[in-house]
């Protein structure tokens, strides 16, 4: 039996394209219910193993969808969501429709960008002053932001930002200014990503 692996859900027109997809698939398409479309590929399991390669393929498919037609909005699913049939998937779209609509409205026309600041080895930095400086530069441009874990001693700042596509250049320039002014920090600026950090849709059982 062929199952449906889900990358995300959107309200835009259906898509269909060839690419390297999760689980060895090479064809991405949509399963639709009313005005919602789930972006899927076929897979032979409902419990895919998260390898580095497939995790990257998952993100690459989302990025390809986001880049189509001048910029599409998609609510990203975490890795591993697979359903036994179109019917099962459509039932989920039906049941979670209000939540998906809210999430789509929240992220419409926006992308996620990430900023990590790592202090240079042996550098003595004022974390509070750094946070204030970043806030002054970036918060006026971002629509939202959320903190992420500081998973190492030298990582002094880790935050995700939801930014309007039209403000991406302003945001890039603000990050560059900050980097120029702080020689004691290593700036790791990443994205754009699908806005994982800014959506939280529970879509129930996989069967």
Round the mean pLDDT to the nearest integer and report it. 91
**Helical fraction:** 25-40%
How would you sum up the global shape? elongated
Counting copies of identical and different chains, the oligomeric state is single chain
Tally of helical segments:
5
Order of SSEs, N→C? EEEEHEEHHEHEEHE
Q: Structural class of the secondary structure composition? A: alpha+beta
Major beta-sheet overview = 6 strands, antiparallel
- The N- to C-terminal Cα distance equals 13 Å
Account of the 3D structure:
30% of the residues lie in helices and 30% in strands. It is elongated. With 207 residues, it is of the alpha+beta class. The chain has five helices and ten strands, in the order ββββαββααβαββαβ. The protein starts with a strand and ends in a 14-residue tail after the last strand. Helix 4 packs antiparallel against helix 5. The strands form two sheets. Strands 1, 2, 3, 4, 5 and 6 form a six-stranded antiparallel sheet that branches. The longest helix is centred in the N-terminal third of the chain and has 16 residues. It has two domains: 104 residues, no CATH class; 84 residues, 2-Layer Sandwich (Alpha-Beta Plaits), CATH 3.30.70.
Brief overview, please?
This protein has 207 residues and is α+β, with helices and mostly antiparallel strands. Helices cover 30% and strands 30% of the residues. It has five helices and ten strands; from the N terminus they run E-E-E-E-H-E-E-H-H-E-H-E-E-H-E.
């Amino acid at each position: 039996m062929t199952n449906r692996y889900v990358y995300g859900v959107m309200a835009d027109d259906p898509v269909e394209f060839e690419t390297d997809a999760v689980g060895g698939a090479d064809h991405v398409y949509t399963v639709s219910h009313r005005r919602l479309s789930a972006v899927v590929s076929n897979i032979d399991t409902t419990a895919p193993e998260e390898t580095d390669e497939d995790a990257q393929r998952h993100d690459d498919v989302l990025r390809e969808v986001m880049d189509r037609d001048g910029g599409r909005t998609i609510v990203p699913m975490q890795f591993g969501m697979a359903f036994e049939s179109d019917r099962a998937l459509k039932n989920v779209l039906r049941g979670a429709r209000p939540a998906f609509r809210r999430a789509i409205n929240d992220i419409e026309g926006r992308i996620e960008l990430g900023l990590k600041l790592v202090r240079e080895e042996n550098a003595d930095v004022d974390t509070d002053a750094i946070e204030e400086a970043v806030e002054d530069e970036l918060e006026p441009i971002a629509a939202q932001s959320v903190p992420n874990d500081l998973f190492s001693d030298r990582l002094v700042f880790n935050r995700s930002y939801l930014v309007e596509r039209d403000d991406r250049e302003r945001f890039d320039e603000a990050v560059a200014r900050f980097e120029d002014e702080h020689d004691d920090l290593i700036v790791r600026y990443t994205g754009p990503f699908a806005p994982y950090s800014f959506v939280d849709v529970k879509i129930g059982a996989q069967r």
